[in-house]
Amino acid sequence: MRLPVTVAAPLCLLLAGCATQPVADTSTRNFTGGMPVDLSGSWERDYSRGDDAQAVLNSMLRRISRPLPDSGYPGNAPQPTQDFSKIVALARLAELITRPDVLTIEQSEYEISVSRKNDFSMLCEFYEGYAKRTQSEYGTEVCNWNGNRLESHLILPDGLLISHRFTISSDGRNLHVSTTVSSGSTRTPFTLNRIYMKFDLPETDFNCVETLSMKRVCSTGEIFP
Amino acid sequence: MKAALCIVLLSAAWQHVLADVGRDPTRLNISIAIFDPGIPADRSLHRKLQVFPRVREIEALYLPFVLHDMLVSARVGGAVRVIPESDPAAELLVSGTILNSDGETLQLRLQVTDASGTVWLNEIFSGPQQDLFAEFGASLIAARSSRDMPSLNTVIEVSLLRYGQQLAPAAFDGYLESTADGTLRIRRLPAKSDPMLARIERIRDVEYVFTDAIDAKFRELSADIEVVYKVWREYRQKFSRYQAQEAERIANAQSTAPPGSFEAISSHYENYKWDRQAVQEQEKWAAGFENEMAPTINAIEARVFELKGWVADRYDEWRRILGQMFELETELPD
Fold first, then answer.
1. According to a count of CB atoms within 10 Å of the terminal CB, is the N or C end of chain B lower?
2. Phi-psi region of A181 (alpha: psi -120 to 50; beta: other; left: phi over 0)
3. Pick from A132, A136, A212: CB nearest B288
4. CB of A20 closer than 8 Å to CB of A182
C-alpha cells in the first residue's frame, strides 16, 4: 500500500530521528546573510578516491553477521538473510544514485541545484536562511547547513530516506559527497563516500542560448540574454 | 520650438460642447492598463504555485492585446487602447490581475471602472483564454446596457474634467466633488465656450494620436509574442496532461514487491525522480520562453519608457503653458 506523503513524511521524520539522525526541519534558521559556502561549479568524480560500493557492503555484512557478545536474545535473533537483502537493496540504490560521474552545481542567493546526468537535479532552497521544502505527491526534499556542510535529504514513502552531505575542501578544489540511504525496513543505513574534483568547462567559440521554439541557438557573435 | 508648437495647438479656438459632442455615449472609450502579473511577493512560493515570474510579466504585457482585439472585434466600446499605466481619467479603465495561468486555463481578476470611479465590474474570470475574454466582453456589454444615456454622457464629461484637472488644476478646480462612496460627481460644468476646455480636449486628442502610434508598434511586437506564447501554452498543456497520466499510472501500478526490497525502494525513488524531471523540464521551457522573448520584451519596455517619458515631458510643458494662460485669462485689468 502506498502511503500519502502527508502521512509518510512525518513518519519518516520520526523514523529517521530514531534510526540515524534528525532530518532538517524548516523552522530553524540555517544562516544569516549569504550561504556559508559556495559549492558552484563543475565537479568530476575522482575514481582513485572514495568508496567502492561492493567493498563497503562486504565489510558491513561481515560486521553485522558477527554475533553480538551479549545480545541476550538467543531465541529471537534477527533474521540475517532478510536484513542482509534489505541492506543489499540500500547499497544497490546508493550505488545507482551516486553513479553519475559529473555534478554541476549552480548556486544563487536563494537556492542550490545539483544537476546529474540521467537523474533529477537536487534542489535546496533557502529564504532568509530558512530551508524551504520541495514537496510533491511522491516525496519531499529539504536541506540544511551543518556548519560549512550542506545536507540534502530526500524523504520518500515507507521510511526511505536519502541524504547527501556535501563538504568542500579548504582549497575549494575537492568536493566530498557522503550519501546515506536508510529505510524503515532495516535499522542499518548504508553510506557511500564519493570524491569529486573541480574542473573548468572548455572554452568555446560559440555563444548559445536555450529557446522555446528553436531549442538551442548558437552564434559566434553576441547573443542575448 | 516645442513650446511654440504647443501654443499654436492650444490657441486654436474650439467651440466645445460637453455632452452633445456627437459621440454615441454607448461607445465609451476603453483603456486597458497592462495587467498586474500577480507574482507572489514571497519568492519561496513561486515553485509551489508554478509561477514563472518573467513569463508572468510577459503575459501581463501580452494578454491586454488579446483582450483589446476581442473588444474591438466585438465592437464593445469606442476606441480601445492598451496603456502602460492605469489612467483614472479614462472613460472606462480595464485593469486586470493574473491569478493563474497554466496554459489550459487562465484566471484573471478584471475590474472596469469609469471616470467617476464607479466600479462597473470586479470579477474573477476563469477558463480558456478566448472564452474568458468573450465572457468578460458580454459582462461589460451587460453592465453598459444597465446604464441610461445621461449617466453614460456623464462618464464622458467627468473623464474630460478629470483630465483637465490633471493638466490645469487651477482652471478645473471645483467642477468635480467627491461623494461619500468615494466616486466623483459633477458639481458644475464649465461654459460650453470655455477656451480652456477646448484646449484640454485638443491636447487629449494629440495624446491619443501618440498613444495610438505606440499602440500600433506594440501590436507588431505582440504578434511576435503570440507565436512563441502559443508554443509555451502547448508545452504547459502537455505538461498538465503528463502529470495527470503519471499520477494515474502510479496510482494503478501498486507494487507487490516486499517492503525494503530493491524493487520497492527503487520504485519510490523513480516515481519522485520522474516527477521532478518533468517539473525541471518545464522550468527549462520557461527559461527558453524568457530567452526567446527577451528582445521583444526589451523593445516593448523601451517603447513604454519612451511613451511615459514623452507624456511626462509634454504634461510638464502643457501644465506650465495652461497655467500661464489661465492666469492671463483670469487676470483682472489694472
1. C
2. beta
3. A212
4. yes
Residue numbers in B near A209 (CB within 8 A): 291
pLDDT tens, position by position, A66-110: 766 655 555 445 555 668 899 999 999 999 999 999 999 999 999
Mutation choice for A interface testing from B291, B296, B298 by most A CBs within 10 A: B291
Inter-chain touch A90–B277, beta carbons under 8 Å: no
Q: Which three cell numbers stand for residue A42?
A: 563543475
All three cell numbers of A43, joined, read: 565537479
ipTM greater than 0.95:
no
How many angstroms separate the CA atoms of A197 and A202, rounded? 15
Residue B155 and residue B18: Cα distance in Å, rounded?
A: 11
Residues of chain A contacting B44 with CB distance shorter than 8 Å: 110, 125, 127, 132
Cell of A214: 528553436
Listed by start position, the domains of chain B span 2-227+299-330
The answer to whether the beta carbons of residues B32 and B50 sit under 8 Å apart is no
Scored b (16 or more CB within 10 A) or e, B83-108 reads bbeebebbbbbbbbebeebebebbbb
Residue B172 neighbours by CB under 8 Å, 6+ apart: B161, B164, B165, B190, B196, B200
What pTM, to 2 d.p., does this model score?
Answer: 0.76
- Average confidence (pLDDT) over B265-284: 92
Q: Which residues of A touch B265 (CB under 8 A)?
A: 89-90, 93, 156, 158, 160, 181, 183
- Position B20 scores a pLDDT of 46
Q: Report all structural domains of chain A as residue ranges with CATH numbers, in order of start.
A: 5-68+75-219 (2.40.128.20)
Strands A186-199 and A111-116: unpaired
